[in-house]
Write a structure and sequence with these properties.
Elements (H helix, E strand, L loop, with lengths): L1 H5 L15 H7 L5 E3 L5 H10 L5 E3 L10 H6 L3 E3 L6 H17 L1 H9 L17 E5 L3 H12 L3 E5 L7 E2 L13 E4 L13 H6 L5 E4 L8 H10 L4 E4 L18 E2 L11 H18 L14
Parallel strand pairs: 1-2, 2-3, 4-5, 4-7, 5-6, 7-8, 8-9, 9-10
Length: 302
């Protein structure tokens, strides 16, 4: 998919080698100073990186970095640019869709249409207007979500590791959980964020609160979430991500949450175009010795 988008736009100073599969990528990798080895198979990615002994810069379409050998890349001083923010717009739109669908009971409306049944009342009566949302992780995706929610009249509170004006301090959000109607999780997947929403956090939410997760399944203690949904401790969960993925068909979470199968970032047709444009801009920076963006911070893990 990349070659038709980038082939004619690549600069003359670049000696380009294209690969068709993981085996060809591993064969060509030793020649690479700049590498783009994106495969859904994590082992294929690691094989290509291991073979790329002269690598100085590794690029990826994916925002998540858990498939990369970060310690090895850091030791080799390889710069890693990822897809952070590439899918921010479609994911933000997906979050709005999920919240509106829950607020208006739209899944029940669709089921009624499937039955050819004319409903006499709306199955959902909540409004986004005037509600309060907490966004955990106010990076590129969190910012796009926040901007859209504010247009709907939602009072948005933001949390990011770096802090900043108008944001809750990183350690303050847990004490404030009971204030929010929507808890939206958009943090990177790191050891620090694993299980950050557990039984204690769920118990601190008010009974109508809805958890929205478009980060990674690992940031939520999933058995604790299921227990909270079954007991009515919280009002609902809108999950684009789960643990594991795919979620087994027999998992009871299917019956207690709205699950959208990690499709939020795929609900678009521009990811490759956006990623190509970013890569080409970074090529110019690389040639000039300027800073690449977004550059993964190995110490932080994103």
């Amino acid at each position: 998919m990349l070659r038709p988008l980038a082939g004619a736009r690549l600069p003359d100073w670049l000696d380009v080698h294209w690969y068709e599969d993981r085996h060809q990528a591993a064969e060509l990798a030793p020649r690479a100073e700049i590498g783009w080895f994106d495969f859904f198979d994590r082992q294929a990615v690691r094989e290509a990186i291991a073979a790329a002994t002269g690598l100085k810069w590794l690029n990826s379409l994916f925002a998540g970095v858990e498939q990369f050998p970060l310690e090895d890349l850091a030791r080799r001083a390889v710069m890693l640019t990822n897809g952070a923010g590439i899918n921010a717009v479609p994911i933000a739109e997906y979050v709005i869709m999920l919240m509106l669908s829950h607020a208006k009971g739209y899944r029940d409306v669709v089921r009624a249409q499937d039955r050819h049944e004319w409903l006499r009342d709306s199955p959902g009566k909540r409004e986004l207007f005037g509600s309060k949302a907490l966004i955990l992780g106010y990076g590129a995706i969190g910012q796009e979500i926040g901007q859209r929610l504010e247009v709907f009249g939602v009072e948005v509170s933001k949390v990011s590791r770096s802090g900043g004006a108008g944001r809750l301090a990183p350690g303050a959000w847990r004490a404030a959980l009971g204030r929010f109607d929507w808890i939206i999780i958009a943090v990177p997947a790191t050891p620090e964020t694993t299980g950050m929403i557990g039984a204690a956090e769920l118990a601190a939410m008010h009974p109508d609160a809805v958890v929205v997760n478009i980060a990674r399944g690992s940031v939520i203690d999933q058995p604790a979430l299921l227990a909270a949904l079954q007991s009515g401790t919280i009002g609902g969960a809108l999950l684009d991500v789960t643990t594991p993925e795919p979620l087994p068909a027999e998992d009871p979470l299917w019956d207690h949450a709205a699950i959208t199968m990690h499709l939020s970032g795929r609900a678009q047709s521009l990811a490759m175009q956006r990623s190509t444009d970013r890569f080409l801009a970074n090529l110019d920076r690389y040639r000039r010795g300027a800073a690449l963006t977004p550059l993964v911070d190995y110490a932080r893990g994103y």
